[in-house]
Amino acid sequence: MSYSVGRVSWEQAAPLLKNVREKVFVCEWRIPKKIEFDAKDRHAFHLLVCDDVSQEPIATGRILATGEISRIAVLMAHRKNHVDHIVMQGLLSIAKDLNLDEVFIYSPLEAVEYYRRFNFCSAGAVFMEAGMPRQRMGCRLENVEDADYCKTH
């Protein structure tokens, strides 16, 4: 499988980004649309992954200038192909371009171990967001395991 990965703005690609996020977060996870799409979208740096064969958008994620990584969504049919690693690598690349020292994510509890593989560490207490337990996880950008992990797993 081959993919095209691009950095896009909300204004430029909102319909494509919304399509992926609605399928994953609203339809699969049952998160209300009014919670899924927020004011942060307009200020975030977005990543869009498209399947090179179908040209369809299959994954997305965003990062804020504060270092907050969020809204990583991969369509179900492409999850076995490790597209999540492509998204994560792209977001970390944006973080480096922004000269950020640290990145963080509010991880669903079932994904905490996944982010630990990138050297993210838990910080603070578990909290509820949109009816889901979450854990803040952070990592200094110099400590993030990104490119090597993404290429070999």
Automatic annotation (TrEMBL):
Gene3D superfamilies: 3.40.630.30. It comes from the Bacteria. GO terms for molecular function: acyltransferase activity, transferring groups other than amino-acyl groups. Residues 4-142 form the N-acetyltransferase domain. PROSITE patterns: GNAT. InterPro entries: Acyl_CoA_acyltransferase, GNAT_dom. This is N-acetyltransferase domain-containing protein. It comes from Thalassotalea marina.
